[in-house]
């Protein structure tokens, strides 16, 4: 009776104080990251007026994120999680402070646009290294704080927090750029990450479940890869998302759409940035109160196919309201996808392998966003901005079609 009540209690996990601290800290940290992404995309486009330059931002971050991801997973599994996270957040604060210095009038007067752009790329490269470690740590902390019977509920809250922070960061980033400029926006980012750091200090230490030196580094890394490859539901979900985000990354081209196609300026850019995540928040709220009970694998595939269709509509639209609505609906469908994938990963992963498996997940999920941004920049250079986004939406639908027949275990997945 108690088990059943807990299972259907939408607030079961947030009754845990430490989990609430984790959610609040992650909310502020992700909000700062998303504001940073919004700011840098806008900043670089204003400096270069070249959509391809936006794509290079993604490439600058994805190279170190991919290069360090597997090693980061090994380090996470042999490290005290809280201390490792605090170190990563300290380095991220340093990067934000350097960007703050670069945004001042003094720096602008002494650096050309090209030199300033290269400096921004280098800082984003450094944040890619940091993200390789900090991203997976959040997920390992989740499982260390919340009991397994309510882990599915905690995963939904965790994804909802991430999405709410994302929409807030995107929207506030656009509005702050319009209101207080790049320097003022970066001051807010530094403040948000600093407060997030305080919340993370409230967490209890989370000792490693594996001893350092217990296994050779390479053997430890290959164990995480082998687990993902053997677990077909996990591999299928990650692969599907990788290619869907890779080809469906219309958001990367939003500065160009807002400036040159829809002509809505930085304020409209903020709304468009927020639309996808607003939709995702709506779907997460629904899934928190009314969790999916059956056919989650099939729903996942239909959601990603619908996401691709929305991207095509957005690309074809010349009206702001239609563009906003298309992105909003794409966010609702993406929210279903995010929650289903996250739940599959948390429930299928053993505790002593979470760092390595979550790092593999970061290679597929987090890096796919940056690779998608680069792909969008290349496609925009070769095809033009609108055709490149249409191409991405069509490829997303094609990936789902192939996965439907090639990954029957994922299609039939239920939890």
Summarize the structure.
The protein has helices at 2-7, 17-48, 51-77, 81-102, 105-110, 113-145, 151-201, 217-230, 232-247, 254-261, 265-289, 296-316, 320-348, 354-364, 366-383, 385-406, 408-411.
3D structure, described in words:
Mean pLDDT is 82; it is low at 1-7. The longest helix is centred in the middle third of the chain and has 51 residues, at 151-201. The two termini are 20 Å apart. The protein has a single domain (12-411), classed as MFS general substrate transporter like domains (Growth Hormone, Chain: A), CATH 1.20.1250.20. It has 17 helices and no strands. The protein is globular. The chain has helices spanning 2-7, 17-48, 51-77, 81-102, 105-110, 113-145, 151-201, 217-230, 232-247, 254-261, 265-289, 296-316, 320-348, 354-364, 366-383, 385-406, 408-411. The chain has 415 residues and is mostly helical.
CATH topology: Growth Hormone, Chain: A
Low-confidence stretches: 1-7
Backbone structural class: mainly alpha
Number of strands: 0
What is the name of the CATH class? Mainly Alpha
Distance between the termini: 20 Å
Characterize the biggest β-sheet: none
| CATH homologous group name | MFS general substrate transporter like domains
Number of helices: 17
What is the element string, with H for helices and E for strands? Answer: HHHHHHHHHHHHHHHHH
Give the overall form: globular
